[in-house]
Amino acid sequence: MRVVISELIWEPALEPLRAAGAEPVYAADLWRRPDDLRAALAGAEALVVRNQTRVTGDLLAAAPRLKVVGRLGVGLDNIDLAAARERSVQVVFARSSNAVAVAEYVFAAMFEAARRLAAATADVRAGGWDRQGFTGSELYGKTLGIVGLGDIGGRLARRAQAFGMRIVASDPQVTTSSPTVAEYGVALLPLDRLLAESDFVSLHVPLVPATAGMINAERLALMKPTAWLINTARGGVIDEAALADALRAGRLGGAALDVRASEPPGPDDPLAGAPNLVLSPHIAGITAESHERTATMVVDDVLRVLGGRAPLNPA
After folding, report:
1. Which of 49, 68, 146, 176 is deepest in the core (most CB within 10 A)?
2. What is the pLDDT of residues 249-292, one digit of tens each?
């Protein structure tokens, strides 16, 4: 059994594959080399990816023996699920494996926005001691708007409640009878009202036609000029040119982006040089702990499918 792994994985998870008689073909940059990827897939029965490998119908056609695709994470927008079904290829993913990591990242972003520790550190290292300039604000009493109250959104609400924040959410699939709404005191609001009332807006929606570019110039204009926008979902849900305009014009307090429309951004990045912008390279869901959980879950499900058993986390 050949298992092709085209992106970064927690390497101890390769041992169960070998123990089961599988042949792992692993290169963290294989997704960057499409010809090599296709060659590796010619005799493969399994493919394991993160978010960079585009699992298209064309790629699946290059792998006639393929039985299963494992997604090291939860987003599935890089996998053509319809094409996989047509070829009877099972898709599995790491359900909830990185939810804690993402929820904690959002808090890291909010604390950075509120206390500006990185800027204060740089100032002190340069000889400054500006206590007035680095007077921050508290999260207590602020309004957190959660767009998408799924697993990650729910965990974020739980933590925000502990910090004494007011929590509002927008999610057409969630009702007032939802346990998350009742337990954490979440107020459900239409998206536009949520944007207008929130001090922090955190996005947790999949990238689908209905969400593509949903945070556009009109909606950014609804936000408080002191508010921060945090995106750990997918870069395509934000109109990045409109966000750049809002930041440069001082119409928004700031933004923390872990995901981008193009990853990594190219030389024509509309956000290059924009002020009050915290950036990270799509690592909100990657911690030492989630890295291990994700790989273990996906490898286990891949082996289940290859062994003729039903997966625990099918897409």
Report:
1. 146
2. 999 999 999 999 999 999 999 999 999 999 999 999 999 999 99
Residue 75 pLDDT grade (very low, low, confident, very high; cuts 50, 70, 90): confident
Give, in order, the Cα–Cα distances in Å from 118 to each of 115, 138, 196: 9, 17, 28
Alpha helices by DSSP H, 203-239: 217-220
**Catalytic residue flag (residue 183):** no
The candidate with the shortest Cα–Cα distance to 143, out of 113, 107, 116, 167, is 167
Set 18, 263, 289, 309: catalytic member: 263
Report pLDDT digits (tens) over 232-244.
999 999 999 999 9
The β-bridge partners of 177 are none
Summarised one tens digit per residue, pLDDT across range 169-193 is 999 999 999 999 999 999 999 999 9
Kindly name the residue from 234, 260, 291, 293 that is annotated as catalytic: 234
Q: Which residue shows structure tokens 């957190």?
A: 144
Predicted TM-score (pTM) of the model is 0.89
- Known catalytic residue: 291? no
User: Catalytic residue at 204?
Assistant: no
- Active-site residue identified among 2, 282, 291, 293: 282
How many residues make up the chain in this entry?
315
Q: Could you give the 3-state DSSP secondary structure of residue 74? A: coil
Residue 256: name the closest of 103, 100, 112, 99 by CA: 112
